[in-house]
Amino acid sequence: MKKIILLLFVCILVSCGSVQKKTTTKDSDYGFIENQPIKLGGFMRETKYAGYHRKFFSSLIGPEGQRVQSRRLGRCCAFRDGRLAFGTGFLDKYELSYNGLGKPVVVYVDLYNFDRPRAPSGFKLKE
Predict the structure, then answer these.
(1) Is the dihedral of CA 45, 47, 53, 56 positive or negative?
(2) pLDDT tens digit string along 87-126?
(3) How many Cβ atoms sit within 10 Å of the Cβ of residue 104?
(4) What's the predicted TM-score (pTM) here?
(5) Roughly how many angstroms between the first and final C-alpha of the chain, as a whole number?
(6) What is the C-alpha separation between 127 and 122, in angstroms, rounded?
(7) CA distance 50 to 42
(8) Which uninterrupted H or E stretch holds 74?
(9) Within a 10 A sphere around the Cβ of 33, how many other Cβ atoms?
(10) Which of 64, 66, 96, 105 lies most in the core, judged by the most C-beta atoms within 10 Å?
(11) What does residue 126 show for φ and ψ, rounded to 5 degrees?
């Protein structure tokens, strides 16, 4: 019985570890091009993901745990989406930087749609 419990415990630990590894994407374009924005939802108040973008950016860290600074650069890039009230949405651009990053990078964010976000290449999410 003890062996079964120990085996279950080890399986749970291994599966939890594998979930955390999936929080950073291996796709070098994710977030960095208009066609692959980070989908954070939450633009509309009182929706399920309202304000989630703040949580996402505050949990973003550099590859060695550096604190990431994020700055909204503004709205850009209209896209068609029939699920939206007027059939069109806009992406937002954010500048990300941390100590040791030579030059800040710009990411594209979709605040209308939500898909389990991952950290863009070169970043991690706090565990």
Answers:
(1) positive
(2) 999 999 999 999 999 999 999 999 988 898 899 999 999 9
(3) 14
(4) 0.76
(5) 32
(6) 16
(7) 4
(8) strand 69-80
(9) 12
(10) 96
(11) -60, 145
